[in-house]
């Protein structure tokens, strides 16, 4: 059709440029070039320089080399759908500074590199729907400051790391539907100040990602439908501008009364097609005007009266009808009168997980006795059924299997036959002491394995035979006294490893053998007193290292060598009294977040932060014992700095810090402990510095008492909001 319309346009007066590539059609008047379905293996090199719209759909480019579009700098629209593109070289689109629309849908792109989209400073819409994107490298969107719509639907994303969307200051709609997202970093959305709509529907989120969503101050619509979320907890959602929330077609069984207390502008709540038998009065949602409960098994007994009464008082419109008792089945909720909602011995709809049942699935399939299987969500659950053996017979298309809180003791070989599509397996709190070799054999699609709160003390590599796609392994709160050395050699795609709150005493060379793709390593709450210099070397792609709450007495500087991607290091709550020169030098080029709080730290050497500089975004030093800190004037990228509960001595030695703090647009919480006349005062307001040599330089007008009093008056500037994590964020004033 496009070719026909363009041919008609040309016949009516358009001209074909002399340099138009032979297989393409060019409209020189409008600056359009159409090379649709021409089986091209490379972008034609003779496209007219003044071309504005270039349509290359349906070709076979595979890889687009750097510099391909340098000869067409006036392009505003570029369509590369269905071109079999597998890789975007760094710098592929350089020279396209006028491009506003780029469509790369339905290709085979698996990874977005840091500079893949460099040069697209005017881009407003980026369509990446229907690719194979499993990972987005931090900084991939750093040059897209004008982007308003980012479409990442129908890819293979399983987790979003912190700051992954950094640089998208103008983004208004982020579309992440139809992925397999299960893990969201707490700061995944921290750099999206203009975002109005977030689409997270059709993913594998099992809980409301409240911490990540709290960073979206301007978002008005949130789509979370078609996720296996079973419960919305107290104060779960803190989105101050949110008006429309969609939690339809999930697995909700309960919602806390004050779940939406911190979302005061919430207007529409869509809870259709869940498993709700009722709701409490949602008193915290003062602005709510409409609740949709259609498709839920609502039990209209006296237990639902408080919710019905709240609807009337708050004048909230409701959609939905009763499923029970039989006398009220089919009655709309808004037609009920309190006397009709009686208690006695109503017969509620049968529990989907009653132990005495053997539910029959659609198409004649069965579910193991005592379990519940959902054909719509491809989920199976036998949670807390007092089972002694792992049940068999789940439907072959099961993708999430929840076996928590049973008493299995051992997971034998071949425990999960016929579950080739299983992506998420929950075995928490099952008293498991042994994961036998071959226990997971056949789970070729498994991505998430939860083994927290068990009794495991060792693991053999053979236990992970047959799960090559495993990316997320949770072994928190077990009985490990050391890392299970060599256990990860069969897990080439392992991204996140949780071993928190075990009894690990040291990290030795070889412990992480085979974990070459590891990005996040969580070891908080162990008894680690020593990290061997080569212990972390196999994990050369490591981005996060959490060692808080251990027994380290010094920064493990030698062990940090060979970690060029490390961006977050947590050493909080270790008995480290002194930080020496060059302590973080091995990771100085990548480190962004450093936690040194609550350690009893007494001294930081002048050269402790050598090499660190503008890349540092957050630094936590609160609750320590040092009275001074080294020069940090080159930390120009700081967004969070916490100096609370540090006993600063506000004398002339602290004057450089005082000057630096005053220049920062941050609230740092620094107060004086001494001398006595300054005790309790903010460092930047203390008058004890006025007697210091050189005070007059740069402090014009701040030396007099009157000026000092004026400086202490409340500012009319908008105060910065405290970070949901800890510390203080950069002011938005």
From TrEMBL:
Matching InterPro entries: Cys-rich_flank_reg_C, Leu-rich_rpt, Leu-rich_rpt_typical-subtyp, LRR_dom_sf, LRR_TM_domain-containing, LRRNT
SMART domains recorded: LRR_BAC (SM00364), LRR_TYP (SM00369), LRRCT (SM00082), LRRNT (SM00013)
Domain of life: Eukaryota
Domain LRRCT: 296-344, 647-693
Compartment list: Secreted, Extracellular space, Extracellular matrix
Bias (Basic and acidic residues): 331-343
Gene3D superfamilies: Ribonuclease Inhibitor
UniProt feature, compositional bias: Basic residues: 715-733
Keywords assigned by UniProt, alphabetized: Disulfide bond, Extracellular matrix, Glycoprotein, Leucine-rich repeat, Repeat, Secreted, Signal
Subunit: Associates with collagen and binds to collagen fibrils.
Family from the record: Belongs to the small leucine-rich proteoglycan (SLRP) family. SLRP class IV subfamily.
Function summary: Potential negative modulator of chondrocyte differentiation. Inhibits collagen fibrillogenesis in vitro. May influence chondrocyte's differentiation by acting on its cellular collagenous microenvironment.
Name of this protein: Chondroadherin-like protein
Originating organism: Haliaeetus albicilla
Lineage, broadest ranks: Eukaryota, Metazoa, Chordata, Craniata, Vertebrata
């Amino acid at each position: 059709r496009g070719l026909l319309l363009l041919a008609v346009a040309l016949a009516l007066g358009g001209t074909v440029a002399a340099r138009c590539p032979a297989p393409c059609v060019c409209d020189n008047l409008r600056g359009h070039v159409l090379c649709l379905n021409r089986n091209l293996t490379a972008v034609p090199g003779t496209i007219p320089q003044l071309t504005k719209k270039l349509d290359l759909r349906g070709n076979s480019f595979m890889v687009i080399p750097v510099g391909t579009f340098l000869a067409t700098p006036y392009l505003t629209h570029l369509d590369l759908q269905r071109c079999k593109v597998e890789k975007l070289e760094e710098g592929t689109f350089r020279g396209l500074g006028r491009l506003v629309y780029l469509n790369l849908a339905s290709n085979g792109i698996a990874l977005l590199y840091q500079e893949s989209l460099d040069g697209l400073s005017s881009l407003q819409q980026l369509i990446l729907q229907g690719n194979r994107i499993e990972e987005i490298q931090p900084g991939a969107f750093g040059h897209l400051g004008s982007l308003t719509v980012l479409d990442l639907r129908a890819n293979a994303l399983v987790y979003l790391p912190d700051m992954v969307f950094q640089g998208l200051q103008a983004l208004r709609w982020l579309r992440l539907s139809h992925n397999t997202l299960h893990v969201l970093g707490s700061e995944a959305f921290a750099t999206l100040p203009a975002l109005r709509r977030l689409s997270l529907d059709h993913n594998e989120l099992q809980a409301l990602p409240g911490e990540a969503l709290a960073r979206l101050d301007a978002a008005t619509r949130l789509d979370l439908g078609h996720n296996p979320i079973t419960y919305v907890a107290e104060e779960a959602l803190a989105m101050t501008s949110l008006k429309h929330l969609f939690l339809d077609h999930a697995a909700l069984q309960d919602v806390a009364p004050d779940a939406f207390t911190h979302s005061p502008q919430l207007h529409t709540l869509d809870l259709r097609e869940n498993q709700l038998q009722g709701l409490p009065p949602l008193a915290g949602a003062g602005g709510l005007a409409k609740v949709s409960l259609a498709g839920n098994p609502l039990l209209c007994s006296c237990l639902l009266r408080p919710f019905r009464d709240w609807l009337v008082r708050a004048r909230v419109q409701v959609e939905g009808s009763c499923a029970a008792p039989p006398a009220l089945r089919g009655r709309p909720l808004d037609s009920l009168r309190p006397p009709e909602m009686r208690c006695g011995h109503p017969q509620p709809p049968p529990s989907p997980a009653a132990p005495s049942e053997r539910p029959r699935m659609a198409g004649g399939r069965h579910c193991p006795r005592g379990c519940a299987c959902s054909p719509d969500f491809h989920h199976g659950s036998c949670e807390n059924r007092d089972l002694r053996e792992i049940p068999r017979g789940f439907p072959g298309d099961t993708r999430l299997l929840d076996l928590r809180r049973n008493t299995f003791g051992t997971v034998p070989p071949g425990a999960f036959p016929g579950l080739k599509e299983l992506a998420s397996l929950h075995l928490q709190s099952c008293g498991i002491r042994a994961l036998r070799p071959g226990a997971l054999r056949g789970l070729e699609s498994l991505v998430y394995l939860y083994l927290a709160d068990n009794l495991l003390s060792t693991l053999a590599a053979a236990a992970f035979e047959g799960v090559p796609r495993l990316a997320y392994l949770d072994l928190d709160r077990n009985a490990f006294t050391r890392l299970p050395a060599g256990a990860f050699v069969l897990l080439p795609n392992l991204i996140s490893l949780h071993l928190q709150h075990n009894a690990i005493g040291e990290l030795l060379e070889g412990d992480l053998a085979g974990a070459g793709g590891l990005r996040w390593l969580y070891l908080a709450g162990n008894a680690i007193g020593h990290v061997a210099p080569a212990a972390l070397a196999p994990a050369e792609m490591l981005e996060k290292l959490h060692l808080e709450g251990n027994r380290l007495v010094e920064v493990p500087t030698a062990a940090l060598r060979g970690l060029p991607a490390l961006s977050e290091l947590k050493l909080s709550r270790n008995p480290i009294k002194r930080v020496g020169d060059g302590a973080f030098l091995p990771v100085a080029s990548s480190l962004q977040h450093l936690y040194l709080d609550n350690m009893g730290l007494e001294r930081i050497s002048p050269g402790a932060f050598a090499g660190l500089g503008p890349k540092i975004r957050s630094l936590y030093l609160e609750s320590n014992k040092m009275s001074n800190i080294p020069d940090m004037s080159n930390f120009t990228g700081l967004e969070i700095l916490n100096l609370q509960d540090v006993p600063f001595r506000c004398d002339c030695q602290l004057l450089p810090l005082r000057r630096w703090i005053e220049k920062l647009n941050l609230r740092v919480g620094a107060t004086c402990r001494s001398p006595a006349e300054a005790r309790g005062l903010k460092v930047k307001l203390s008058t004890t510095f006025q007697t210091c040599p050189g005070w007059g330089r740069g402090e014009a007008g701040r030396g007099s008492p009157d000026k000092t009093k004026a400086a202490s008056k409340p500012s009319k500037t908008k105060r910065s909001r405290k970070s949901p994590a800890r510390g203080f964020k950069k002011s938005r004033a």
